[in-house]
Amino acid sequence: MPHQIGFVDNSGGVLAHYKMLETIRDFAAANGWTVLRYNTAPANRELILKGVGYTGEEEIFVGFRTYQDASADYYNLVAAAFTGYVAGNTFDTQPGARLSGVPAHNNRIDYWLTLNPQRIALAMKVGTPVYESCYVGKMLPYGRPSQYPYPVVCGGMLTGAAATRFSEATHSMPYKGNRFGLGLRSNDAWIQPQAYPWSNTWIAGTGASATSPNLRETDNIYHLLPIELHDAANIWGSLDGIFYITGFNNAVENTLVIDGDDYVVIQDVSRTGHTDYYAMRLDD
Predict the structure, then answer these.
(1) Model confidence band, residue 91 (pLDDT cutoffs 50, 70, 90)
(2) How many of the other CB atoms lie within 10 Å of CB of 99?
(3) Phi-psi bin for 209: left (phi > 0), alpha (psi -120 to 50), beta?
(4) Rounded CA gap, 132 and 34, in Å?
(5) Which residues pair with 164 in a beta bridge?
(6) Which of 68, 105, 146, 240 is the most exposed place for a label (fewest CB within 10 A)?
(7) Can you give the pLDDT at residue 68?
(8) CB contact set of 157 (below 8 Å; sequence gap of 6+)
(9) Where are the alpha helices (DSSP H) in 31-84?
(10) Which of 182, 179, 77 is nearest to 132 (CA)?
(11) What's the pLDDT score for residue 100?
(12) Domain range summary for the chain, segments of one domain joined by +
């Protein structure tokens, strides 16, 4: 499955975050996802999609919608995952809905959008600039389908549809250890997992320092570490195409090629420390 890199803006009188929603719709629909709902009539425009997974026979329900407040100067997206779809339900009341806001913009948004049959990942550059990220759909579970049939993830920058502008200083990417913006569906409920390696104090956690050997490349080779979701008793699985990468002698929007796959480096909002970066695979 492919990726798309580009930008949207507010030309033609349409706000950029509305165009971002349309871009996700068009790209997903052109690459194997079914559009179950695309409603542009309300101010909070809605998109709900269904993927079929790597087997081609699954039902994976994800969505995006806009929310905004001109007086507070924020124009955001919500990333969502569901356990089903009911046509008569509102976006927020779809079965098993989990929502996480992603600050965006009414002006230009540069984006990196990648998908495969089971998940959609998005990074956006907005504002000053800062970088905002989300992931919706399945991860790669460490268990058989009979044990763990619906390992879906909703990862965004905020807790629910929070009224937060991109310039707010404390919000953070969902992958960074233990974040309210990251939800994992267990067999019976949404949980807030830990995310390795940020959950490991000495690799990428708060105990890491600039002199720790794990924080830099090895002989100019940047090793990617899988982002594994776990709690105190379980290792649930790893994200599909999203990896930890060191920020040592690295920079946002750098690209790298590993085993024929292209990756782009994305930072955590405006942060530029050694542990503030991840690499997103650009599917093809």
Answers:
(1) very high
(2) 24
(3) beta
(4) 25
(5) none
(6) 146
(7) 98
(8) 100, 101, 102, 103, 132, 133, 134, 164, 171, 172, 173, 174, 181, 269
(9) none
(10) 77
(11) 98
(12) 3-282
Four-CA torsion 93, 99, 102, 107, nearest 10 degrees:
-10
Tokens linked to 75: 């124009």
Residue by residue, DSSP assigns 164-197 as --TT-SS---TTSSS-TTEEEE-SSSEE--EEET
Q: Among 85, 172, 92, which residue's Cα sits nearest to residue 134?
A: 172
Q: How far apart are CA 105 and CA 235, in angstroms?
A: 36
- Give yes or no for a contact between 135 and 148, defined as CB atoms under 8 angstroms apart: no
pTM summary value = 0.96
Residue with tokens 């499955």: 1
Whether 123 contacts 115, CB under 8 Å: no
Is 160:100 a contact under the CB 8 Å cutoff?
yes
Bridge partners (DSSP) of residue 49 are 35, 62
